[in-house]
Give the backbone structure.
Amino acid sequence: MTTKTHQTEPHRSALGRRRFVRDALSLAGVGATAGLTRALPRSAKAASADPTSANDRKLLFVVCAAGGASIIDSFLPISADEAGSEELADTLDTYPSDWIVQPPDSEIRCVRALEDTSYYTTSYSMADLLSRHYRDMLVVTHEVTSVNHAVAQKRAVTGADVNGGRTISEAVAEIHGASLPLANVNMAVGGYAEPGGDPSLPVSARAEFIAAPRLFALATDGTRAISGAPDRARMDQIRQTRLGFEQAGAFSKTFRAAPLLEGYLEARERARGLEELELFDELLLFANDEIPTNLGLSPSPMLAELLSVFPRLAHDQWEQQAALSFLLAYYGVTVASTLSVQAATVQDGDDLISTPLAFDFSHTDHRTAQNVMWGRISLVLDGLITLLKSFDYLGDPSQGKMWDRSLIYVATDFGRDKVRPAGANRWGTGHDLNNGSLLISPLLQGNRIFGGVDPTTGLTHGFDPRTGQPDRDAQQREGDIYSVIAQAMGVDFPGRRDMSALVR
Amino acid sequence: MTALTGRYAAVICLAMAAACHDQTEADAPEPMSESGRNRLVWKRSHALEADLAAALSLPNDALCSELGSLSCVREVHLTSLGGHDPIGQGMYRPLAAPMLTTSLAVERVVTSACARRVELDATGEPEVFDAIDLHADAPQPSSDAHRSTTQTLVRRFLGRDPVSAEYEQLGALVTNPQGTPSSGSAYALASCIAVGTSAEFLFF
């Protein structure tokens, strides 16, 4: 056989990449001298996808706390001594005051990692996240409109259809990622993984679903690392021939207007753009000793940095999701990533570090589920923020740190029951509309709690969205949270609510 | 021949493809009218795997693996290929339509399977590429070997006979991109990928 594999021709790859970046810079009107092009880091290739808007581009990370993450069990806890009476404190979901931590200068407090979490292990403490990032953290109270998991999850990301059914990720992808190959990726489950309901959404803003993030690199090239595959030039010839072959037959004529075929052929063309970016090695979340040596592959050059914040990257899909979402943003491929904890229990050595059904294990053991799972959420938040604060966008110092343009929305389904059997430390809770959300971003008024909680009922109340002042008679809804994010991300739409008090 | 009888003839020919390919080939395709319904079905992961295995006479497990051990269809590209795994991946419904990466996943799977088939045919008794010498140069586009190879692939993948223009299109693969003659095995591989990754194989 005379065919050569793609990886045997590194010069071709490098030349293609440089040409791609140079052309893109030229398109952008940037002085693409040879010297400038050489000086650009490898990651700058991604700027090619949409170079004209890279300066203003925003990055959204929707971190889904699936199953019902309760705000009063995390970043808006009630101390038992605030309930007014010991009897009331014993029957409400309150915590002893010494279980609650609040860093100096922080307006926000949280529940520390609990010592007794049954068979499960809290892998990370909310307190660590808070102490490191409280300046950028906001607690926003609200009451949602469904206690059905799938319905509530979808409403958490569509703002209960406040924007014509578009998810917030779709809306951000349309504005900030119009010409990016993978502007919007979704690694979540259930209602968080559902596409929005707006049929007018541009194809480029639709989410690419990624079920196996560690392996996603393998889906970014049609032949790379396939034994015996043709080289790139031959594959291009085959694709061109295939097109002619398809057009010659009756099938494409008969079904020319079939939406399924039209969509596929359009996506197939766009996939060439993804392949051109040569993300295969950049996104490969495997260590050297896990990759067969005969395939000519190497791990992501960012692997060491990723492992420093996501130590279970090899076997924990939650950390893999976060790592991939960072890489896709860093390389300028994606502007909106949605990730979520999984229903499956996760083992780390002898430890169970995730409860079954994620936060919904609260039906069985509320306090354990909330503490273990909020710890798990916090680990990924801290890791993600640490990376975003460490790296320049596109690897280009002139773009500034990635964090400066990022917003993390911790979405959840709904809250949980606020009451417990008298004095119980282990009990089960049902679903409750009343809750709140955590948002983290330098684009927002950080270190603030918008709204509040009544320590005698455990119920949260709202605030005036223009002044930010607490209002015990107000309740924010899904559409308000959506509007906060949209406003911070520069996404406008008819009916967007004015949430100026929360936005910088 | 009326349109109706033409359709019946086509059905009969599909059932007896080997016996009547000359008749089908001779028939110029009638002017095709566009479908009014445009209802196509995506051939999803398991069906794709089964059809690909049948087309190339390979066991399912021999079609494609990533990083040496992971099944392309059942693990790595399951979602892109239209499958879903509610237990392992928490995905309760398959995707409604192909995604951006679907075509790349299809290419990976088909390329791997075609390469395997070519390799087996080159080293043993050929099962698919029996009309050409895989160790020699590719056949000429006008040759019987090219026609037979094209016919075999189109029948195996698409369940019909090729039309004249399709023979011509695939004839381009007897040379490589630089314009020099391709080897028999490279031609076989390229033809197999072109037909196996065509939209007609992925939808029905």
Q: What stands out?
A: DSSP finds 13 helices and 17 strands in chain A. Chain A touches chain B through 70 residues (CB under 8 Å). Residues 68 and 96 of chain A are 23 Å apart (CA to CA). Confidence is low (pLDDT under 50) at residues 1-52 of chain A.
